[in-house]
Amino acid sequence: MAAFADWANPHHPWQLVRVKLPAETCTFGVGEFTKGVTVSVRATGQALLVRLWRQFQGTSTDATEKADLGFALWERRHWAKVSAVEAYFDDLAARHGRRNPTPLKLRRLWQEYNRGRNYRADRLRQQRMKRLWTGCIEYNREPRLFHTETPLEPSYLQYSFEVLEWTPRKSDWVAEVTELDARQPWHNYWTPTKTSLKAP
User: Fold this and answer.
1) Which of 54, 95, 109, 168 is most buried (CB neighbours < 10 A)?
2) Cα–Cα distance between 68 and 123 in angstroms, integer?
3) pTM greater than 0.90 (yes/no)
4) d(CA 192, CA 124)
5) pLDDT at res. 189
């Protein structure tokens, strides 16, 4: 479970998906905001769009950009079912005792991961719905800021309207998710990858 929560690890399944996504935007230009150029948290227009794009891609240039939004997009496709995890811990505690350090440690790890996951999911909703999607329509008598097709940018994972739940059955969640993705590739490949964009 700890390895699953360590999304910054270059061997994490999310990172392996991230490096396959196009490195450049496909539906808009970045203009002067090339890699490494800091974009203000109060940015608007193209600067805001580039800032959001970086975060949805899972990259950031400074402490104010949150690379975990890319992980949050991936996480929506690999949503460990809360009731199943809690039932597993209850069963473990019943078999080994409620004060046994192993179930207690695992439950603490889960609670920490789940709290972070919920925080990321809330921030992702805010950034996608409040900033990106409303920027693509006329909203509150304000003209749209971005092109209508911008939310469909193929260089980051798309926002799934529903989470795709899975029930962990092994202690090694990373290996299990890797197997799941091999059997059900739509968890990650809603958009083309670099290899599928190459000419034959």
Assistant:
1) 54
2) 10
3) no
4) 22
5) 63
